[in-house]
Amino acid sequence: MKHTMIDCYGSKNHNLENLVYINDALNKLAYRLGLEPIANPYLIPYYYGRVKQDIGVSAFLLLKGGHITIHTFPLRECYFMDVFSTKDFDPSYLIDILESLLPFNRKISTISTSSRRKFVNIELPFDPNNNFGPHCLAELTIGKAFTLDECYDFLDKFVYQIDMDPITRPYVIKDKVENPNYLSGIIIIAQSHISIHYDYKTQHAYFDIFSCSAFDYSKIEEFLQKLGKIISIELVVRGTKHKSNTNIEPEPIHEISSLWQKYIK
User: Fold this and answer.
1) Burial level of 76, CB count in 10 A (0-12/13-18/19+)?
2) Which of 22, 94, 177, 181 has the fewest other C-beta atoms within 10 Å?
3) Domains in the chain, ordered, with CATH?
4) For the segment 232-247, what is each residue's pLDDT rounded down to a tens digit?
């Protein structure tokens, strides 16, 4: 079980807004790391937010019991990526691949890996004035079969439970048609995501809640407890260098970048 989170700054590559390129990059990343996708990448261009500099692409590739996600900010020259997998992979090799596909400045970026430690409750200080957003990692035992409908309904309601803005409806899928090992669900919120991976054999579920703005952490624990017993919950601070690396004065969204004109004609 491994979860690597990368806050990539200094990325001047114009492919951060190229949907075809990002689609190929996600497939290549999974292939080179030896991870097993269970569906094609899903990409969502985001160009209608209240702050012009927040336009970009959110995309995910669901894996067998995990995912690869990316949220890009081409005008801010940065992107956020997550690789969560039940299968082991080398984080150093992941970074090398990423630097070749979507170059970034490693010196001003942040890379962290969680082993999804059990029986722990870790909370790091979060400063909404200087950090991009909190990232909550949780594991719980449900103790019963978790259905497609239950997974969908949970994600659909959970977004509003923590006062977030959904960009998509939930996407829920089994890793295979017959005798599945995992049930996975994900929903994209404003340039972030919430995901669930349920293990049919152990009846454990792994939650990944990444938000670009602060939220009430206590609501997460309260809502998760409705499904089962929490084994671990870990709060990771993302974007500690976001403010210093993206000193751009926010502007209204009505002045759309020329990079995105082709998507709004």
Assistant:
1) buried
2) 177
3) 2-263 (3.60.90.10)
4) 888 887 876 555 565 5
